[in-house]
Amino acid sequence: MTKGFPEGFLWGGATAANQCEGGVFEGNRGLANVDVIPHGEDRFPVMLGKMKMLECDQEHYYPSHEAIDFYHTYKEDIALFADMGFKCYRFSLAWSRIFPKGDELEPNEEGLKFYDAVIDECLKYGIEPLVTITHFDVPIHLIKTVGSWRSRKMVEYYERLCYVIFNRYKNKVKYWLTFNEINILMHLPFMGAGIVFEEGENQEAVKFQAAHHELVASARATQIAKEINPEFKIGCMLAAGNTYPNTPAPRDVWRSMEKDRENYFFIDVQSRGEYPNYAKKEFERKGIKLEMAPGDEELLKNNTVDFISFSYYSSRLTSADPEINAQTSGNVFGTLKNPYLDASEWGWQIDPLGLRITMNALYDRYQKPLFIVENGLGAVDNPDENGYVEDDYRIDYLREHIKAMKDAVNEDGVELMGYTSWGCIDLVSASTGEMKKRYGYIYVDKDNEGNGTLKRTKKKSFNWYKKVIGTNGEDLE
């Protein structure tokens, strides 16, 4: 019986364009939804699609505009990743860097050249690029003109993006993800999919219609990819974490199953190729009639993904009792406080065994290889006078999660392709827009207000992770 991780396991780290790239007004890039989400009290109303903000103003600070300036420091940053021994680097493309407005017939060559350079830099060090086609990005022009993913036209614009990048990088990139955390559309519609609601409309119907368009676009991406290079591996991406019942009461168990299905719904379609019956019944109950084009069902059926990628930060807890459930806390996914778990400074519950449970649930359900593309601990780091951070708390978190991951592979037989921990270099938090919520092995000198030198410094976890990768996950001390 083999122990440890398979040969060729893809160790690495992950970032997103809108959280690290910056350079928003350079290289002919257009503005996207992620660029108009401010830091501060208006952030959540804007992300929810309830407060309309389609331009930048002078009153707000927009963290994505500079982020950590990866646009100018990518060589230095990728060299640091190579020093850690990365086998894989997951990053995303900014749609509006390639198609500034989103509906052009020809791409922006300057944007493509930037990604040429990033990919070539990875390959120079033998780092496999794992490219997320869209990590919440929607060009603002498409939100203003067609209403973003509520419109079928988006499928055509997304296809155009796919044709361009798949042809351009067909000999350089093997692994692709169609949409980052596709289920976030249901929780933060503007951040996840550029959706702004109009007065009095059925928000649930709008979200499910937008979801259908994204699912069709994902299937088309898979189809186009295989035509251009049959060796491409295409994955979907889920914000994962199993939901536990608050008590053994059957109604609590049923509620936890319903909560899990809310997230599985997208992956059921992307991996199995059809809408599950429980979702069809839900639409029926809510009077939602999805508009489908002829051939949509065949397209979904014939173009399923090769692997299931997901983010895992914590498990969740729910109750069927509305009064108890009213006490939910946490980030995007409301959860009861689990008395058996510790929590991070942001209230995210730390549950390494939950990762093993989630991996088994996904593998049992889909029987496709898994890829953990986000996992990590957001924490306040206090550097010394040299910028060095002794982040033992982060090492402890990662160690326990990697152990759980190893158990899922060795004890349970789960097929796992790789592990790219989130925010391998400090970046802007997607949920809060803060810099102080840090995940990285590399400290970036910048604060929540945008002040700082942007100097990079290795944390204690840098050398720890280097050792983990160097021993293929054997040495976790």
From TrEMBL:
Keywords: Glycosidase, Hydrolase
Keyword Hydrolase: yes
Residues forming the catalytic site: E374 (nucleophile)
GO biological process terms held by the UniProt record: carbohydrate catabolic process
Gene3D superfamilies named among the record's database cross-references: Glycosidases
EC number: 3.2.1.86
Protein name as catalogued: 6-phospho-beta-glucosidase
Organism: Alkalicella caledoniensis
Originating gene: ascB
